[in-house]
Write a structure and sequence with these properties.
The chain is mainly α. The chain has 19 helices and no strands.
Length: 444
């Protein structure tokens, strides 16, 4: 009964992944609720700017090594140690570059504080890069709950540290030091947990030549990451520059709240997709069958969650953020339209990786960047956060359609004939949430 065993294997792996990620998301949600009541939208807006650039340099240092290591069938001790050493060197080099360009960031935003805020955030990049190898070892063995436990503990420690030091630092500095505390404790805990994996704890090694072996896979993954970064972060860069820190704080919170259902419904499962589905790489019909079944259920869940957020956005914002964030509600309503398609779209990377087609993932990222950047630039030019959100909705639906046309054409044995079901599930679900938006706007 291979059909049943494959489905059960994927479901079981996803269950472990979801259980672990929900623990992390719960802790992060509580953290956000606490911090939103301490800091103002302007403070969050200033911090959001520096975080946008931190994410870029973190991607630069990650180089797509994580998925590439998971995709390897066997990792020797020499390869493990060589790549581990390289991640330390790369993380340090990227952090130095971050420090060097900080005056340009300060000049662009007309605020000297940015060239100092990069110090704690930049150091955190070193630890986030050096954790790649032990983290990959845990992911390869599907130890998702162990990973989640480490990340949750690190987040709790960082919040406690922030609360204890709030009287000694300016609010923006307390917020900027938090990522550094998270990265240090996350690194320590993940490294210790890797002791119980087959690969064991990595050590510094001199055989850096092994890096070249995984670059064949990781270069396309890294390219996709960079394109994905610009398509998803250019809005924060431009909103902070042209619409102000307070507007960025409001927009950033609306976008983050919209992403929480994606974290819960899809990103929690994503770590399980590649390790399990890569075993079906030589069985395309089964690969396709499981994918279609997965996307069908995820579209339905996305529609239900999108409707819930659309209807109760005012209550959600008040409960999670407090009464000073009321302007977030209308933006959250608009962005909820994208949830059904994003729930499915955000899982596509794991299937591309499992099929060993990171080259197609890169192409998908190029199209995504093209449409998203166009929407963001036009929205910021119009000078309205609501217009920006509507344009982002349109771009996500276009990206969803092109992503699955590409996947069906090149990966699934049924070709394009199999894609219309997947696309129709997502698009119809988003249209339902869109209609709810208009009904609520008309009647209230």
């Amino acid at each position: 009964m291979p059909e049943i065993s494959n489905g059960k294997k994927l479901a079981s792996s996803m269950l472990y992944s979801v259980t672990g990620r929900y623990l992390v998301y719960l802790v992060q949600l509580l953290s956000m609720m606490i911090l939103a009541r301490i800091f103002t939208p302007e403070t969050f807006g200033i911090f959001a700017v520096i975080q946008v650039f931190a994410v870029f340099f973190a991607l630069l240092s990650e180089m797509g090594f994580g998925p590439a290591l998971i995709n390897e069938s066997k990792i020797s001790t020499q390869m493990r140690d060589g790549i581990y050493s390289f991640t330390w060197v790369l993380g340090a080099a990227v952090s130095v570059i971050f420090f060097i360009i900080s005056p340009l960031i300060a000049w662009f935003y007309g605020n000297d504080i940015y060239q100092y805020l990069v110090i704690p955030v930049g150091i955190s990049i070193v630890f986030n890069t050096s954790v790649i190898v032990p983290m990959s070892a845990l992911n390869r063995e599907k130890k998702f709950i162990t990973i989640a436990r480490c990340e949750a503990i690190a987040e709790i420690i960082s919040v406690v540290f922030l609360l204890l030091t709030l009287d000694y630092f300016e609010p923006i500095w307390a917020l900027a030091i938090k990522p550094l505390v998270v990265s240090i404790f996350r690194y320590i805990l993940i490294l210790l947990a890797a002791k119980n994996t087959e690969e064991g704890i990595p050590h510094f090694g001199r055989e850096l030549r092994h890096v070249k072996k995984i670059l064949a896979f990781s270069k396309d993954q890294a390219g996709f990451n960079f394109l994905n970064y610009f398509s998803k972060n250019l809005d924060n860069i431009l909103v902070g520059k042209y619409l102000g820190a307070t507007s960025l704080g409001i927009y950033d919170k609306a976008y983050r709240l919209m992403r929480y259902p994606l974290l819960i419904l899809t990103f929690a499962m994503a770590p399980a997709i590649q390790p399990v589905m890569k075993e079906l790489r030589e069985n395309p019909p089964e690969f396709e069958r499981l994918h279609i079944k997965f996307t069908k259920y995820m579209s339905l869940l996305g529609a239900l969650v999108g409707l819930f957020i659309c209807i109760f956005s005012d209550e959600i914002v008040f409960i999670l953020l407090g009464d000073k964030w009321g302007d977030v509600s209308i933006l959250l309503k608009i962005l909820s339209i994208t949830i059904p398609t994003q729930v499915v779209l955000s899982s596509s990377g794991g299937f591309y990786q499992a099929a060993d087609r990171a080259d197609l993932l890169l192409k998908c990222g190029f199209y995504h960047a093209l449409t998203s950047v166009s929407a963001i630039v036009i929205g910021v030019y119009l000078g309205s956060l609501e217009a920006l959100c509507w344009l982002i909705v349109i771009s996500f639906i276009i990206n969803f359609i092109q992503c699955y046309l590409l996947m069906s054409k090149h990966i699934f044995p049924s070709g394009l004939s199999s894609v219309f079901g997947t696309i129709s599930y997502g698009v119809i679900s988003s249209v339902i949430v869109l209609i709810a938006n208009f009904v609520l706007a008309t009647n209230f």
